[in-house]
User: Fold these one by one.
Assistant:
Number 1:
Amino acid sequence: MYRTHDCNALRPADIGKTVTLCGWLNSRRDHGGVIFIDLRDREGLTQVVFRPEEHAEAAAAAHGLRGEDVLQVSGVVAARLPGTENPKLATGAIELVAGDLTILNKADVPPFPIDEEIANEDLRLTYRFLDLRRPRMARNLKLRHRVVKTARDFLDEAGYLEIETPILSKSTPEGARDFLVPSRLAPGLFYALPQAPQQYKQLLMVGGLEKYFQIAKCFRDEDLRADRQPEFSQIDIEAAFITPEDIFSLIEGLFRRVFQAARGIDLPTPFPRMTYDEAMNRYGSDKPDTRFAMELRDLGDVFAASDFKVFKGALAGGGVVKAINAKGFAGVTTGQIEELTAMAKLHGAKGLAFIKVEKGEWKSPIVKFFSEQEKQSLRERLGIEEGDLILFGADKWETVCNVLGRIRLRVAEIQRLTAGMEALHFLWVVDFPLLAFSEEENKWNAVHHPFTRPLAEDLPLLERGEFSRVRAQAYDVVLNGVEVGGGSIRIHEQALQARMFEVLGVTREQQQTMFGHLLRAFSFGAPPHGGVALGLDRIIMLLCGTENIRDVIAFPKNNRGMDLMSQSPSEVDFKQLRELAIQVVKKNP
RNA sequence: GGAGCCUUAGCUCAAUUGGUUAGAGCGCCGCCCUGUCACGGCGGAGGUUGCGGGUUCGACCCCCGUAGGCUCCGCCA
């Protein structure tokens, strides 16, 4: 047996016991005679004292110890001398008086300090095995374990079966770019890594398993972000004979249990609900951050007969005029206005009109076009007061909502409205549109995915071809402006699914080659079913209070999808390629 | 594919308007030190300022290019 306790276990009650600890040397304070070391394992720190007059051999050996050496120390637990207790340590009232010291392994000098935060993430990722020794990373991974374990227990108690689905699966045309895996046995053919276990979980429902879940690894070959990795995890859930209401309460219960276990937080349920239209109209986003107001206000009626051509023109063309009131932001700098204007233009607006309310005066390039009546209405509608900054959007509805929604978030960031805020604003966004028209491809695409069920009352709209008005039985769960999950009730009838593919421009032949198995399954008595997928990494990020997904994954990829520690991806031997019938075309240098 | 910021000792950062030998703290190495916990004291090593080119009497500093990192847009059903 290597040890009797961990390094966070010993307390005054253990004084007098003979114990053995193992761990890494966190720090050494060598006084020439007496020597102190802090021994670290994943649970914490314990001070070990070497006294030459009591155990000369161990003390002599302790002089040669260096940071990160791996040690085994035996001795007697003692109270610290009065006045030398360390209240910063959980074990600070006691120390281990070393009798025996075994050096299990010497360590080279680490390339960066283990006991403090460093900024160089490149280096941290290259030496990830050292980075993981840092208490913050250990804490994040422990919390991740707690979340996953709690979710498994909760879903098990609710009657859900954890079932694995294939990693080697089939490429599908919709959605993200696939990672491909060449087949050796069928040269020239490829598996795809799953973007999500979507079809498999629906087929499990056809298979009569009724309630399924999985902590599913998903793969998407798209560019990375601070909150996006090419491989990530979902808590994937699907059930037969289930309504959206059932799913909402299941997921609310799951979040309650997880937040209780991970952070001791008692979440209020049920979560508020908001339709997609309302979210867009009030917050300019389908994942609204409701921790602060600054809501979008519609001004169509105010400017219906305006002399200001930009607003009147937008309204006449079927568009909208909206504004947000950035309370207390009249002190905005010229540079910030330029930044916000550039942001507005980047997302399709022609410009960004504004009013600064300073010293009782409305400072603005456009206010001269407004009548007294219009100014009065504005004042009331937006609650305008001294020190406010009003920002306008006038264009198509989608453009105005999107632009003002992004500006709202940027202004909140500049004003630090949510800095240090502990609030947890969960909400469901419901009644998403089923379809969205892509100008680029000149076709209709599924907003959620092609298996999403239209709202029953909107089926006639689908038949009449009024695609933009068809709503889906789809829902997202949003926390503090972050989409942490989403799902839908699925189509379970062959005919309706075929009709959806038709609308999406998938030919009958394509339907058969790509989705034939699913359509066939639906013809053999598929039960009504639906589900949801929760973004595990993002949930852990919010629980850990980090903005960086790499902080909650043991071995993540960097910005360019590379693992700096193992140097992957890497070149492979030409024999491997030959077996796979693959020829690499190298870019000219 | 595009944009912004960044790159100086092992780490975190300085370096005056372009000026002569590029500094500090931590870490590291050596010596000393018997109650520290950011231990302390003395001494020491450590740099092609990412790389390449240019301007200049002179470049860490200015210009061009390039590589790498991070963040964002596009992309992510």
Number 2:
Amino acid sequence: MREEEETEWFARWEEHLPSPEELTPLSQTLITPALAIAFDIPIPADGNPSPILSPHFLHRPLPPPASPHLPPPPDFETSDLNSASAASGSGGGGDEPARTLKRPRLVWTPQLHKRFVDAVAHLGIKNAVPKTIMQLMSVDGLTRENVASHLQKYRLYLKRMQGLSTSGGGGGGPISASDAATDQLFASAPVPHHFLSRRPVAGLGGPDPFLPYMPVTALQHHQQITAAMQQQQHYHQRHLGHFGSPTGGGGFDHGFLNRPAVSQSGMHQMLGAAPGMGLMQLTPSSAASFVDDLEPARGGSGERKVLTLFPTGED
DNA sequence: CCGAAAATAT
DNA sequence: CATATTTTCG
């Protein structure tokens, strides 16, 4: 019977999250610099190249099928399309500049986290170790430590949930125990129910028996964690928090950005700061002003038209 | 290399 | 002060 349940969440998964453009207001560059040029697309801020930092992190093609008999890796895009100019087989050179540089704090955005969860789900809790996860994610710049750290937190989150999910968890609300700001990130991603209260399937040493892979084709992000992105996202995250759209008739909560009340933690932070909210923490290095335009669109329905596409031109 | 804890940064 | 992410230790 459980099997059916699993298939169910599986089917619902799609609706659970990716969805709406509302959730993807992030400005992912869909157009590569080269492409833009080819199409003669005038990049905004022409005079303002947004000299946002672009520490060229190392980018590895990530080769391995890490999965023995695992279905083809998710359509996770390898998130690398910068091979245009670097195609030169030069020595491999190897010189990935950025090997000993202190890379900026990694910001786990919902998208990244989703990728993380997907990877873990496909690997199965058993094989979900940092290294493997990292490889599956194929996110350029991601290090094993990044994943390990996040995994640690993720596990704690899962554990926490198990204890709170006393209501039989069946049917009612799968995951709605705590809405601490902390869980927001995790809430944004569908937590495979197998993870909860359920140990490795006996008799199976490998990945879960079934793993049809979810239809997350909506993934339209070319993820390349760069300082630029991080800054933008970070900035957004700070401003997000209250969205007046109480699931207007929806009924399904996408579980993200629509948490009505902030817990104490949130208040504490505000208390520390001024009610006027002027907390704009720009990273030290370049305090260039970004053209972020994430409008809460209060009032009627929201209007998500965030197109801050800027050239990742880094190659 | 993995996992947990301590240390730091925000 | 709390939380997120990094670095250190076992």
Number 3:
Amino acid sequence: MIIRLEQSSEQPLYLQIREQVIAAIATGELAVGEALPSVRSLACDLSINLHTVNKAYAVLRDEGYLLMRGRSGAFVADPESHTMQGRGAVEDARMAQELYALALAHRARGGSETEFKDAAAQQAVRAFSE
Amino acid sequence: MIIRLEQSSEQPLYLQIREQVIAAIATGELAVGEALPSVRSLACDLSINLHTVNKAYAVLRDEGYLLMRGRSGAFVADPESHTMQGRGAVEDARMAQELYALALAHRARGGSETEFKDAAAQQAVRAFSE
DNA sequence: GTGTATTTGTTCGTATGTATT
DNA sequence: TAATACATACGAACAAATACA
């Protein structure tokens, strides 16, 4: 798994890691059950502190994307697992809220309902094509 | 314009204000050219500091939703105005990025492309129906 | 016009929490 | 754990604009 960080970005490093891990899971680059690099090794690869990687992993665990088994490391969680269904529902609700806020902002900028639907569909195609 | 803040929310107060002002502009509750309450009066209504309201207004100005004319107050900007077209384009690009990230996260949770499109369409209908 | 009081956004400093090393 | 840098939110004081007698 290759992660690229932008130190000058406004987005915190741990959120950049989170986003790219999610992208890797989505595209299948990281398979269900697969182990992620250790906090230490990834931090070393990225030339950042291990606390920062640890925070990213902790957030991903809280959101249901990862399972962390103490010293044996972090693994990609199975979305079908019963223990994860609840968290997936919470994230789906958060997604709906986000989509609503984006649609409202688009309307406030003078955009149309169709424009928003088209933009969403376009990004969906992008995200699901490999 | 009625704004409700949740002090215990994880979301900063100034972003809660931003979101609700955008919603008011989107639904037409705030018309183009209309004046917003002064930072002081709104801060007093909400029982928060004027700096927090001022920051919310400043962000909305930077994003192109408001025009601020010194001490004469803040006004709803016209999205059709040529000076605002550029900012609208920037926000549209940011929206596309956001949609892409949401779609990827949905896929990582085991969701389908159609599910995402449907969710987006549903929230679009919600946002554009009054 | 003049003087005063009120209202406005801005500038300064401070306290607390978060991000990162 | 400790230390640094930034973000969030607050309070006091300021100077420009406005209202009004």
